[in-house]
């Protein structure tokens, strides 16, 4: 169990700014960024650091303090003057604890929905990781919606695309500003932010081109 701090209530929510922060982007931009950041031959939708999906958004976990660095990084990377659908959740924030994708009415996600906070955040074994990888492989669609313990699908619930590792400390794999260049599994924070900003900008432009009425309204 990861033992990440949680807030009381249902659904279980994780406190950000303590063990990790979160970058929040459109899911289309997120998938495009992961394809660019991943090593050759890697599965683009299963990155080397924790990532979750929630509705049309992608949540990328980064080292604690990353949210505070985001505005300065965007300015330094010369993205500060452009409207980007790239936000961060840091100290004092909350995010819904992602579940494993549903493997059936009584599958892993259903079991996660019925457990306590630490279990939801941390009960991710090797079999669960394989399920997540298979759910995202070869498809542009997000994994199946997780189910509550009573079998009902939870509309809009957060689901792990790549859950945190149980062993070796989940925080060691998180993109951080001090990790210059990053590793083969996770990029450094500056590279991640630059790639996400690029793909958010591209997605915004493509959305405007696909909707001329929206493009005229935002001029």
Radius of gyration: 17 Å
Taken as a percent bin, the fraction of beta residues is 5-15%
**Major sheet: size, sense and barrel closure?**
5 strands, antiparallel
Uncertain segments are: 104-153
Please tell me about this protein's structure.
This protein is an alpha+beta fold and 219 residues long. It is 33% helix and 14% strand. It contains seven helices and eight strands, in the order βββαββαββαααβαα. The strands form two sheets. A five-stranded antiparallel sheet has the order 6-3-5-4-8. Strands 1-2-7 form a three-stranded antiparallel sheet. A hairpin with a 5-residue loop joins strand 1 and strand 2. Helix 1 packs across helix 6 and helix 2 packs across helix 6. It starts with 5 loop residues before the first strand and ends with a helix. About 23% of the residues have low confidence.
Short description:
This protein has 219 residues and is an alpha+beta fold.
Write the layout of secondary structure elements.
Elements: E1 6-7, E2 13-15, E3 21-26, H1 27-37, E4 51-54, E5 57-62, H2 66-76, E6 87-89, E7 94-96, H3 108-113, H4 117-122, H5 126-136, E8 159-162, H6 189-210, H7 212-217
Antiparallel strand pairs: 1-2, 2-7, 3-5, 3-6, 4-5, 4-8
Helix pairs in contact: 1-6, 2-6
Give the tags.
globular; 5-stranded antiparallel sheet; 3-stranded antiparallel sheet; 14% strand; alpha+beta; 219 residues
């Amino acid at each position: 169990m990861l033992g990440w701090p949680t807030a009381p209530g249902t659904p279980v929510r994780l406190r950000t700014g303590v063990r990790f922060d979160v970058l929040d982007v459109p899911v289309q931009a997120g998938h495009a960024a992961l394809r660019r950041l991943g090593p050759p031959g890697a599965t683009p939708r299963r990155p080397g650091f924790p990532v979750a999906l929630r509705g049309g958004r992608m949540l990328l976990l980064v080292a604690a303090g990353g949210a505070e660095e985001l505005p300065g990084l965007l300015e330094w990377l010369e993205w500060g003057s452009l409207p980007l659908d790239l936000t961060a959740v840091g100290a004092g924030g909350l995010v819904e604890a992602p579940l494993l994708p549903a493997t059936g009415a009584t599958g892993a996600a259903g079991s996660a929905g019925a457990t306590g906070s630490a279990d939801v955040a941390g009960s991710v074994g090797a079999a669960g990781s394989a399920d997540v990888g298979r759910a995202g492989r070869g498809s542009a669609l997000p994994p199946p919606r997780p189910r509550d313990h009573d079998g009902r699908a939870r509309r809009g619930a957060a689901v792990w695309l790549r859950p945190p590792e149980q062993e070796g400390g989940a925080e060691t794999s998180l993109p951080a500003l001090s990790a210059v260049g990053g590793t083969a599994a996770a990029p450094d924070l500056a590279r991640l932010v630059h790639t996400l900003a690029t793909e958010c900008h591209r997605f915004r432009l493509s959305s405007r081109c696909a909707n001329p009425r929206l493009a005229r309204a935002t001029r």
